[in-house]
Structure formats: C-alpha cells, structure tokens
Amino acid sequence: MTAIPVFNAEGVKTGELAVDPALFDKTVRRGLLKEALIAYLASQRQGTHKNKDRGEVAGGGRKPWRQKGTGRARQGSTRSPQWVGGGRAHAVRPRDYAYQLPRGQRELALLSSLRYRLEKNAVCAVEGLDGLTEPKTKAVAAFLGKTGLEGKRALLVSEGNLPNLHLSTRNIPKVTVSERRNLNAGVVLTHANLVFTKSAIEALVKELKG
Questions:
Q1: pTM (2 d.p.)
Q2: Which pLDDT value is given to residue 60?
Q3: Domain tally, the chain
Q4: Beta strands in 54-190 (DSSP E)
Q5: Does one domain contain both 85 and 185?
Q6: Residues 170 and 121 in one domain
Q7: pLDDT of 117-152, one tens digit each?
C-alpha cells in the first residue's frame, strides 16, 4: 500500500489515503508510456510550418540567358532552388502531426502513468480548494508554497468543472488544472506532480475498485 498525503487549503497535512498501486496497473508499462507520450507531444505540434517552392516566390519570369552558346549551364529561371532567392526544393507544407493510440491502449497508459507518479511519491490530495467561491490566486499560491510545489510543474485534478480554481491558477507558472475525466497519460507524464482534490481521488479509487 502507498500512502497519499492529504492537505487542507492552507497546506497543512491532515491525513493520508492508503492506495494499492496495483489498483492502477500491475506494473509500470514504460514502452506503452513512451508511445503515449510521443502521441501526446505530436498532437501539441501546430504544424503551420511552410516554405515557398519555385512557383510561389516572386520574379524569375524570363529565362536568364539563352539555352546554348554562352558556355554556362542552362537555366530556365532565377527562381530555381539552386539560385539565391529561389524557391525551396521539397518545400515543407502545413500538416497535422496528431495521431491517437487505440482506446484500450490510451486507457491502460493513463492507469500506468498514474502508478508511475504514485511510485515516485508525486501524488497528493487537497481538500478545500474545490470549494472556492471566487478566484483566489494568492490562496492557491500559498498552498503550493507550503507543500513544496512552488515553481514546479504541477497538475491540479478536479472532479468536475471548477471555474474559480481555473481562474485562480492561470497566472501561476507551470501549474495546470484539469478535470479527472479529461486526464490522459501525456498530460500526467508532462507534469512532475499530481494534486488531486480529495473528491477526485476518492472518486477515482471508487471507480477502479468498482
């Protein structure tokens, strides 16, 4: 069993939640996690890169010199790829890099990534932050400072949509808020620390046991 520390909104430890790592996965599937991470990072690429080919650069409308008799190599346009200022050979075009693993692999990768973070002692829970009645960046920043997460990449996982929690963290560097239902292995692996709201971690454990 692994003990997940539980903190209140002020960053004071109030208890622990015992969780069996095998509840998530029997072992950390590093090969699958690598595939899931590559797929996640690929989906983050904008793919808006583009070069101009010889038909898109300006100029080069006439043949620079006659075909024969000059002693120089034949040229048809000053916009050919071998000319300075010419078009790009094999020009890069906008493309979509995103791809998805099969659903079963995605679900297994998420559970395995949670076990990986659990083994690294990088999972904790907090009670009180999901009850914010208004945005309070100072309160969230104070909690992160008290728990040693200030300046570190942290993912706050809520059970439902919490607009006030989103607004409270959007100006804090390296901190992201996500609903539990939107979790995937990629976002878990790119955040070194996971902070679940107490309701979120209890719902997750209950769902896995069920």
A1: 0.84
A2: 87
A3: 2
A4: 123-127, 154-158, 175-179
A5: no
A6: yes
A7: 999 999 999 998 988 899 999 999 999 999 999 999
Considering only residues 1 and 119, tell me which one the structure prediction assigns the higher pLDDT. Answer: 119
Does residue 31 sit in the same domain as residue 126?
yes
Instruction: Determine contact, residues 129/10, Cβ cutoff 8 Å.
Output: no
Evaluate the CA torsion angle 42, 47, 51, 54 in order and state its sign.
positive
Structure tokens at 132: 């914010």
Is residue 160 within 8 A of residue 24, CB to CB? The reply is: no
Residues 203 and 124 in one domain: yes
Q: If we measure between CA atoms, which residue out of 159, 161, 201, 194 comes closest to residue 176? A: 194
Strand order of the sheet with strand 13-19? 13-19, 2-8, 123-127, 193-197, 154-158, 175-179
Contact between 6 and 17 (Cβ < 8 Å)? yes
In 3D space, the residue among 91, 114, 121, 139 whose CA is nearest the CA of residue 36 turns out to be 114
Same structural domain, 174 and 71: no
Question: What is 138-159 written as a DSSP string?
Answer: HHHHHHHHHTT-TTS-EEEEES
193 and 158 within one domain:
yes
Domain hosting 72: range is 50-93
- CB of 129 closer than 8 Å to CB of 147: no
Least Cα distance to 179 among 192, 167, 197, 153 occurs for 197
Residue 15 CB neighbour total at 10 angstroms = 13
CATH number, position 202: 3.40.1370.10
